[in-house]
Each structure stands twice: as C-alpha cells, then as structure tokens.
Write a structure and sequence with these properties.
Blueprint: H1 7-13, H2 28-39, E1 50-54, H3 58-68, E2 78-85, H4 87-95, H5 110-133, E3 137-141, H6 148-154, E4 161-170, H7 204-218, H8 227-235
Antiparallel strand pairs: 1-2, 2-4, 3-4
Helix pairs in contact: 2-5
C-alpha cells in the first residue's frame, strides 16, 4: 500500500460503525452538504429512483428503534431511511400519458427494483463517507427491515416505493477498534472464480485468530466465536420468517417479471 494516501482513502480505510453519539445536533449546513453528496452518487440511467427520508420526530425514531431492536437508533442526532422510489417516476410517466398500472409501465419490474435498490445503496454510502470525512460517525441500519410493513405504514410510503437501509449519523461518543478484514486473496480473484475454492481458505486460520483477538480485546467478558464458527452458526439460523420481498407486491412491484 502506498506510503502516502489522500484523505478520502484514509477516511475509507478507517471506517467503523459508530453506535454511540454525543447529544449534539447536526447543523443545517452540514446536513445540506451530506445530502448534496448523496445526490452526486452514480444513478443508473439517471433515473434518480431513490429517495431518503430524514427523520427528526422523536416518536418516529423510537418506533424505528423498536422495529430494529436497537435502542441507540432513537438517540441518533440525524437519521435517514433510504428507499426505492419509482413513485416519483410513475407520476412523471403519468404526466406524459403512460398509465403506471398498465404493463406499459416497466419501472415496477424486478430489473428496475434492483436498479433502484443499488442506486439507493450507492447514495447512502456516499453520504456515509462524507459524514466520516467531516469527523462524524455513522452506522448503517438493516435491522428496521425486520418490520417492513411497519416501516411502510410509519413513513407513509406510497405505491412503487420500498425501504432499503437506514443511516444514523452523529458526533462520535466512542472510539471502537477497527474490525479486521479478511486477507485480500480470500476475496479478490483474477478473471474467474477459483476452481480450487478450498485454496481460498488457506488464510482462514490466521484470520480466525485475528478476529478472535479483536473480540477478546473489545469485550473480554463476552467471548465471541472465531469468524469461521460465526459463519457456521449463522448458516444454521432459520430466517424463513424474515421474508422481505413478499411485501413488494403490495407496493406495486412485480418482481416475477
């Protein structure tokens, strides 16, 4: 790795999830900057098919924290829910004489759903990077999706919209250690997926030891399994009741097409 790195790369290499924030509001200029950065993220076919809901109502924050079973969500000075948004494009298409309820309107298909989901994630990541660059802390939130129907009702999400991820932002009130990342050779391949898949696991024992040490130093009173044991444990979890996309049909999407 280069001896000198631009500030943006240093920021990305040092990213970590922050779950404890100082009780200080984020000023309007900073919010405007973060939102402008999110809007500059790549947009497939320039569809602008995502939106983000800034949540500052304490009751709404508390409800989202309840959905996610994570109390710190309610304490986030700045909270966003990023959503797929083809509702806006449906209205635009309708103004041009296209009936969104007809088969002519193709922005409700699985291809466009995935396209919009990707754009929303790219925008969120851009905002997260900008926040870290400004000395703020963030944590990406997937846990509120445990109650998608609740989120849809809570945020009054109309037809052709769907929740993707949340982002909590604030001034950090903790300094967690950097969580290890697996060796590059386990995750980056040349031209094709390795025929010798087992060979990609040669570095696993060393990574297991590194992850184990990280958790031991972080929470010595609560031992955590090695990485490979965590994967094995999670792979056996029954999440069949945590279906997500079956709610999409009720929002107008036809994901079988």
């Amino acid at each position: 790795m280069a001896a000198w790195l631009p500030a943006t790369i240093e920021t990305l290499l040092n990213r970590r999830s922050i779950r404890k924030f100082k009780d200080e509001a984020i000023d309007a200029d900073t919010i405007a900057t973060l939102e402008a950065v999110a809007q500059r993220a790549a947009s497939s076919q320039f569809l602008n098919d995502w939106s983000a809901i800034r949540i500052n109502n304490p009751a709404l924050k508390a409800k989202i924290a309840e959905y996610g079973a994570q109390a710190y969500i309610a304490d986030a000075p700045l909270l966003y829910m990023f959503i797929i948004d083809e509702h806006r494009n449906a209205r635009i298409a309708q103004s041009k004489g296209i009936d969104p309820s007809s088969d002519e309107f193709g922005l409700k298909t699985s291809y466009r759903f995935t396209q919009a989901q990707n754009d929303a994630v790219l925008a969120l990541h851009a905002m997260e990077t900008a926040a870290f660059s400004l000395g703020l802390g963030c944590v990406i939130l997937g846990s509120p999706l445990n109650n998608i129907n609740g989120l849809i009702d809570l945020l009054n999400l109309p037809e052709y919209t769907y929740p993707v991820l949340g982002l909590a932002i604030g001034k950090p009130d903790q300094e967690p250690a950097l969580k290890p990342r697996m060796p590059r050779e386990m995750q980056f391949f040349e031209n094709t997926y390795p025929a010798d898949a087992d060979g990609t696991l040669d570095a696993l024992p060393a990574f297991d030891a590194e992850v184990h040490q990280y958790y031991d130093l972080r929470q010595a009173d609560r031992p955590v399994d090695a990485f490979s044991d965590q994967i094995a444990k999670i792979s056996r979890q029954d999440v069949s009741n945590k279906t997500l996309l079956d709610k999409a049909a009720a929002q107008g999407f036809t994901l079988d097409k």
